[in-house]
Every structure is written in C-alpha cells, then in structure tokens.
Specification:
Number of strands: 2
Shape: flat
Radius of gyration: 12 Å
Strand content: 15-25%
Low-confidence stretches: none
Mean pLDDT: 76
Number of helices: 1
Structural class: alpha+beta
Number of domains: 1
Length: about 50
C-alpha cells in the first residue's frame, strides 16, 4: 500500500488507506514502548479492509 502525506492544520500526516469506502473508518495510532506499525500494516489492515 502506498501512503501519502496530507496536511491538517499546517502539519503533515502520513496516511495509508486499506479500505472499502463504504465501511466506517478506523484510526490506528501506532507506537508505544518498543512497538511499531509493522504488525498492524502487514497483518491487521488486510483483515479490517474486508
């Protein structure tokens, strides 16, 4: 999935969309102690997109 930078209130935000635009949106904020977004991007996004 190719992401894009969008500008919100003067700040750039990197966004990836795995979706059907007919479904409700899910906002996932990655991070935390020793965590990254890899697990979500690779595994969970495909499950949630269907």
């Amino acid at each position: 999935m190719k992401g894009e930078l969008i500008k919100i209130r003067g700040k750039k935000l990197y966004v990836e969309c795995y979706c059907s635009y007919d479904n409700p949106a899910v906002l996932y904020l990655h991070g935390g102690p020793s965590e990254s977004c890899y697990n979500f991007s690779y595994h969970q996004s495909r499950k949630l997109a269907s």
